[in-house]
Design a protein that fits this description.
- The structure is a single chain.
- The protein has helices at about 5, 25-35, 65-75, 85-90, 100-115, and strands at about 10-15, 20-25, 120-125, 130-140, 150-155, 160.
- By secondary structure, the protein is α+β, with helices and mostly antiparallel strands.
- It has one domain.
- The strands form two sheets. Strands 1-2-3 form a three-stranded antiparallel β-sheet, with no helix packed on it. A three-stranded antiparallel β-sheet has the order 4-5-6.
- β5 and β6 (about 160) form a beta hairpin.
- α3 runs parallel beside α5.
- The longest helix is centred in the middle third of the chain and has 16 residues, at about 100-115.
- The chain is globular.
């Protein structure tokens, strides 16, 4: 089964038979246009490292429909954007009760992605085999129920596989 025939959102191309790239760079401008964010400034990091998120807040509740759409789109982008997987999954916890700060934080992630829309996963044919595991976690950082969030990425020869 050929992926672009199903989704028509990814670009897959091969250079000189040695490397294959997986990119979603054509999809990102469409997302920005859909949410009227084309004129927003790009940011360097997806979210502040010191952010504390909670299900309870004194701010205004927002319509969860837009939030859920954004989370769904960002989850789809994690196919080729492993660097946002952790924070997108963390933000997905707040879909049942969404406050304005949650929506603003998700929009920051989208602004970060928009500034790096030309990133791609690269898979090359190599003679050596190197398996690398990357971990990211926060032990009990959820203020509401003390849940931990973790992420694990496996690379073979510097190309993410899982």
């Amino acid at each position: 089964m050929y992926i672009p025939c199903i989704f028509k959102l990814k670009e897959i191309f091969e250079i000189a038979g040695y490397c294959t790239y997986l990119s979603q760079s054509k999809y990102i401008p469409n997302i920005l246009q859909k949410f009227r964010m084309e004129e927003y400034k790009y940011i360097a990091i997806p979210i502040s490292p010191r952010i504390t998120l909670s299900l309870s807040s004194k701010s205004q509740l927002v319509d969860a429909t837009t939030y859920k759409k954004l989370i769904g789109i960002l989850l789809y982008l994690t196919i080729s954007r492993i660097n946002i997987t952790f924070i997108v999954n963390l933000m997905a916890r707040f879909m049942q009760k969404t406050y304005i700060e949650h929506l603003n934080d998700v929009k920051k992630i989208l602004r970060y992605v928009a500034g790096r829309k030309d990133l791609a996963l690269k898979y090359c044919k190599l003679t050596s085999f190197v398996l690398l595991e990357l971990l990211d976690y926060d032990y009990g950082a959820d203020r509401d129920d003390m849940k931990s969030t973790s992420m694990c990425v496996f690379n073979i020869n510097l190309g993410a596989i899982s």
